[in-house]
Amino acid sequence: MTNLQAPIGVFDSGVGGISTLRTLAQALPKENFIFYGDSKNAPYGEKAANTVIALSQQVVDELRKQQVKAIVIACNTATSAAKPALIAANPDIPLLGIEPALKEAVDAGKKHILVMATPLTLSQPKYLAQRDRFSQQALIQSLPCPGLADLIEGGAAQLPAIERLLASLLRPLSDQPIDAVVLGCTHYPFITELIRQKFAPSTAFYTGYEGVANNLKATLAQAQLLRPESHQQQVRFMSSRNTVSELKLYQQLFDHGIEIAHG
């Protein structure tokens, strides 16, 4: 296998990154992908930063054993907490990550933006610097959502608990004129419709998928790693919780983009 034909590695703390993977696979149809979900250790968002760095490096090591040509961190928390350390430890491979799409919302002219993310993502210097950079252009509110990614990881069986937690988190914001919601955790798009019900119909939602897809395209092009020929795209799944049911769930979410709210 030549370097150009090697797959692209994508990882997340669990199932959330599959939502990102779908966009990457559509944007780069000539490329093969390997997705690794660290579901045994999910979620990352309420762990210490040094723990997230260690877990992320373990996943990177697993992906590198598969001879991937680039790695995408499809986890906002791991991007925020671990990306600089991962780049420093792996200087010989392109490594990039998804980030909360705050710039996208500001560029669209939104003036009252809510960023929903894990506590660790919202506490990291990278997000805080981005928030401060745009604070003159919009009113930006940061909403830590402890426990939400963990419930989403549990699938449709956790739907009642997800609805209760959302109601508790969003109730204090019910009278505010929020015109944009940034979903700053890749698990959250699986419950987009549940979240959307809490806001005005005109409220816009942002995920960061297009940004990381464009970044990946540009990074591969610059490194001359884009696969030139068309072929039948292959997407393979791996998990730290290496069970048949877990891998089947990954495939179902990738194939159908199932929203947990819809079973």
Question: What characteristics describe this protein?
Answer:
Rossmann fold; globular; 2 domains; 263 residues; alpha/beta; 5-stranded parallel β-sheet
Mean pLDDT: 94
Biggest β-sheet: strands ordered side by side in the sheet: 4-3-1-2-9
CATH uppermost class of the largest domain: Alpha Beta
- Helix fraction, binned, reads 40-55%
Structural class: alpha/beta
> CATH fold name of the largest domain, please?
Rossmann fold
Beta-strand residue fraction: 15-25%
- End-to-end separation: 39 Å
Question: What is the CATH architecture descriptor of the largest domain?
Answer: 3-Layer(aba) Sandwich
The radius of gyration computed from the alpha-carbon positions, rounded to a whole number of angstroms, is: 18 Å
Query: How many β strands by DSSP?
Result: 9
Number of domains: 2
Order of helices and strands: EHEHEHEHEHHEHHEHEHEH
Tally of helical runs: 11
Shape: globular
- Poorly predicted runs are none
Biggest sheet, in brief?
A: 5 strands, parallel
